[in-house]
Amino acid sequence: AQCWQSILPSSEGKMLQEDTGYMLSMRMHALFWQKWTEKEGKLRRVINHIQKCDVHKSNPLDPEVFPPADCLVSSFCLETVCKDQSSYRAALRNISSLLKPGGHLVLSGDLGTSFYMVGPKKFFCLVLTEEFLRGALSATGFAIQEFDVLSRDDDTMQEICDFSGMYFIVARKEKAI
Ligand SMILES: C[S@@+](CC[C@H](N)C(=O)[O-])C[C@H]1O[C@@H](n2cnc3c(N)ncnc32)[C@H](O)[C@@H]1O
């Protein structure tokens, strides 16, 4: 419910509180997708290039070399592709090389996830904690500016994914490590 409310304007939030049951869920569903199709359209219009990336390489964009960026966004990626904590820290160092000193990393994903299902297929996920993330970012030259956690507030669908919450981080690259 916290997630839904945060994407709704306050007047819609109030209207939703007055609705009930089926209508409520239908309206939320419609509003959610309306917002996301708008966002998808906007994103598609501003993307002008897609580049392959491998976070395990010291230059993740190898063989290309791009000027360092002001901002880098990574979502639900590193924990699904790094097999352990040391490989996660190495990947952070690698992607940090794509950023200017003073540039920002916007990092988000799940806390506490050890697996997730896509249909019948089970995927590995490295279990992350807030403590580990804070340590790893600091060890790789980042200063955390925001660290928000949204805790999981129900136990349903544990068989799909065992996450305990979600994290949203903004960190500034202080130095190259
Ligand atoms: C769980 S998906 C997340 C996708 C998307 N960011 C999202 O939030 O829906 C993990 C992504 O990591 C990508 N990936 C796998 N190995 C990678 C690697 N070595 N370097 C960078 N990305 C990788 C996969 O292609 C996949 O898109």
Automatic annotation (TrEMBL):
<keyword id="KW-0949">S-adenosyl-L-methionine</keyword>
<dbReference type="GO" id="GO:0008170">
    <property type="term" value="F:N-methyltransferase activity"/>
</dbReference>
<keyword id="KW-0489">Methyltransferase</keyword>
<dbReference type="GO" id="GO:0005829">
    <property type="term" value="C:cytosol"/>
</dbReference>
<comment type="similarity">
    <text>Belongs to the class I-like SAM-binding methyltransferase superfamily. NNMT/PNMT/TEMT family.</text>
</comment>
<dbReference type="GO" id="GO:0032259">
    <property type="term" value="P:methylation"/>
</dbReference>
<keyword id="KW-0808">Transferase</keyword>
<dbReference type="Pfam" id="PF01234">
    <property type="entry name" value="NNMT_PNMT_TEMT"/>
</dbReference>
<protein>
    <recommendedName>
        <fullName>Phenylethanolamine N-methyltransferase</fullName>
    </recommendedName>
</protein>
<dbReference type="InterPro" id="IPR000940">
    <property type="entry name" value="NNMT_TEMT_trans"/>
</dbReference>
<dbReference type="InterPro" id="IPR029063">
    <property type="entry name" value="SAM-dependent_MTases_sf"/>
</dbReference>
